[in-house]
């Protein structure tokens, strides 16, 4: 006799929002990872975690700040967010945007580390920020989302092209 369980039916999968894609962006200040080795280990941990949970991500690191956008199913994003808040409470994560999307914008686990080099100066948020120094906490969610698009767009438009 074959018994069909309802826990594996497509209709049951929709009960928790597995069919809904979410785009979530947060900003944070790095106050706990003191060395490049610690940061590298943390990034590799999250890369594997996101890959295992079918989450794509775009992360910018600059001057001790993180600006990260990730996309996946509603349950996966909620679980990842809880994990970030639980395991990294000292980075003071602040959600700046969360919305439902039709398709994923990013592919894989993308990282851009901005430095004070002339090449990266083009990407700094000074033209987006309210102050003279780079500080994503002073930026609006629209400025942050535009910044991420500029950083990870394959065409690499200049910042003033998206303002």
From TrEMBL:
| Domain BLUF positions | 21-112
Name the domain of life: Bacteria
Q: Which PROSITE patterns match?
A: BLUF
- Which Pfam families does the UniProt record give? BLUF (PF04940)
Q: Which InterPro entries match?
A: Acylphosphatase-like_dom_sf, BLUF_domain
Q: Which GO terms describe its molecular function?
A: blue light photoreceptor activity; FAD binding
Name this protein carries in UniProt: BLUF domain-containing protein
Source organism of this protein record: Psychrobacter piscatorii
Q: What is the lineage of its organism?
A: Bacteria, Pseudomonadati, Pseudomonadota, Gammaproteobacteria, Moraxellales
């Amino acid at each position: 006799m074959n018994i069909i369980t309802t826990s594996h039916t497509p209709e049951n999968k929709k009960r928790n929002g597995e069919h809904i894609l979410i785009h979530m962006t947060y900003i944070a200040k790095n106050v706990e990872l003191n060395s490049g080795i610690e940061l590298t280990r943390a990034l590799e941990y999250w890369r594997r975690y996101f890959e295992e949970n079918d989450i794509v991500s775009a992360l910018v690191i600059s001057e001790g700040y993180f600006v990260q956008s990730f996309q996946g199913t509603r349950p996966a994003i909620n679980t990842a967010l809880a994990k970030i808040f639980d395991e990294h409470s000292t980075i003071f994560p602040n959600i700046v945007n969360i919305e439902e999307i039709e398709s994923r914008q990013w592919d894989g686990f993308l990282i851009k580390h901005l430095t004070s080099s002339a090449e990266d100066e083009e990407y700094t948020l000074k033209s987006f920020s309210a102050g003279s120094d780079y500080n994503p906490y002073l930026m609006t969610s629209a400025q942050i989302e535009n910044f991420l698009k500029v950083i990870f767009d394959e065409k690499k438009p200049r910042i003033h092209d998206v303002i």
